[in-house]
Design goal:
338 residues, alpha+beta, BirA Bifunctional Protein, domain 2, 2 domains, seven-stranded mixed β-sheet, elongated, binds phenylalanine
């Protein structure tokens, strides 16, 4: 047995392990559960008493030789033939946990509330043609309603623009899907507005659309009430005020009762106690026709809200520009929020 062990030691001394794969195969061959060293230790039990000492020593030498050969490989890892070696026992560098952006937090929450009601997420491009952003939505060309949303047109081709609302996703969805349609479209939108603490030229919206037979304004109201109570709290009250959008008829603006308890409430609600949250209405039959859906058979509602406004209320952020400055001190305050 002594001879066998010594032969192994000599082999090991002549072995070179050029690759990590070779080293691993070598390790398994010698140190694996069914490896040579283990087998020899098993045989060791049968060695007569007077030889035990010498064989035992030889076995330990063999094990050390295997380990030394392996350690050598680590030190000779590519590019590190000389000089300091890595210290694999050192603790790793801690990676600081990231944080979701407040806009993502609010968007995810809004989307998940509507997903629970059976809406699914739809997306569309940020650069849109006139048809999807305006014409199909009942904004005739030269109609003053187009002034409601100051648009960034592409200099080379004014038929194209950065979308001014995610309502363009409504059009794309209706053009390609058959009712019943129940979608929610979160996304980034662009308006050529002066940047201030209240408005920015880039912001985010979530828009919803439901088209089916017999969809009524009562369905819209109930859906929005359920959303408001899920998002702002069970006791939230809403009110709908008549409004105007070219693509909905009738149109409304939804407010939630915010309260008038302190000065901040007065400021936020302009002294009314009501806070405007979103625009909504029944999809105009002309829009359904433009998108190939028969308004004699189907009806539907749509609604849209700005994520920044809601995030500003939720997190008490006084200036919309904070969302885009990427100031880590600001972003880190959301690392605990989900
Ligand atoms: N797209 C409208 C806006 O950007 C919001 C809206 C969506 C209104 C759907 C009614 C229905 O102001």
């Amino acid at each position: 047995m002594l001879e066998i062990i010594e032969k192994h030691i000599r082999t090991i001394e002549q072995t070179t392990l050029p690759t990590a794969g070779a080293a691993e195969a070598f390790r398994i061959q010698y140190l694996g559960k069914k490896g040579i060293v283990q087998a020899l230790f098993t045989d060791f039990k049968t060695v007569p008493g007077d030889e035990k000492r010498a064989v035992g020593q030889a076995l330990n030498t063999l094990k050390t030789a295997v380990e030394a050969a392996l350690a050598n490989v680590v030190m000779k890892s590519p590019g590190r033939k000389k000089g300091p070696t890595e210290d694999f026992s050192r603790p790793g560098y801690a990676t600081p946990p990231g944080a979701h952006h407040p806009i993502s937090l609010v968007r995810n929450e809004i989307v998940s509330i509507f997903e629970r009601m059976g809406f699914s997420v739809a997306q569309g491009p940020e650069m849109e043609d006139d048809w999807h952003n305006f014409s199909a939505l009942n904004f005739p060309s030269e109609h003053p309603a187009r002034d409601m949303q100051d648009t960034f047109f592409l200099a080379k081709d004014p038929d194209w623009a950065l979308r001014t609302h995610t309502s363009s996703v409504q059009v794309r969805t209706m053009e390609t899907q058959k009712p019943p349609i129940r979608i929610i479209a979160p996304g980034r939108v662009f308006r050529n507005e002066a940047i201030s603490s209240r408005s920015h030229c880039v912001f985010h919206q979530v828009e919803g659309l439901y088209i089916d037979k017999n969809v009524s304004f009562a369905d819209l109201k109930q859906t929005l009430l359920a959303f408001a109570q899920a998002f702002f709290g069970e006791k939230t009250e809403i009110r709908l005020r008549p409004s105007y959008f070219p693509f909905t008829e009738p149109s409304a603006e939804m407010d939630i009762w915010w309260g008038l308890e302190n000065e901040a409430d007065h400021r936020m609600t302009k002294g009314t106690g009501w806070l405007e949250i979103m625009g909504c209405g029944m999809v105009d039959p002309a829009v359904l026709t433009s998108c190939g859906i028969d308004p004699m058979i189907y009806s539907g509602y749509a609604f849209g809200m700005g994520i920044e406004r809601i995030a500003m209320q939720r997190f008490q952020i006084p200036d919309i520009r904070a969302f885009y400055e990427n100031d880590l001190r600001f972003l880190k305050t959301f690392s605990g929020a989900l």
